[in-house]
Amino acid sequence: MVWGSMIQRCTNPNNSGWPDYGARGISVCERWLTFENFLADMGERPDGLSIDRVDNNGNYEPGNCRWATASQQQRNRRRPVYYDRGKPLPMCGHPNREHKARGMCDNCYRRALRRERNNAA
Known about the structure:
By secondary structure, this protein is α+β, with helices and mostly antiparallel strands. It has helices at 2-11, 35-42, 70-75, 106-120, and strands at residues 50-53, 65-68, 83-84, 87-88.
């Protein structure tokens, strides 16, 4: 159930999602702690969609949530920040390229490293 999972990952430190939600300060608005209020605001979940926060750092609340497809959710996620010599590297903007754990494709990673090293010299 979407509502129960949302509550658990934001309030229960024993939930596997806690580090990415409750521990980051993501909470559920007081109104949505009651299922009927959540249902009144969001409506029933359409087939194939899941709850998504428009502002990924924002809370679960009426103005910040929508029903979204998996591809919409993928575009709305936290991206890790990678550093070279203490400076953050830009993230790759190629959604269809193979991305490694560092968050960018190999070509963009090599290009970013080269650019950062040239700027540091």
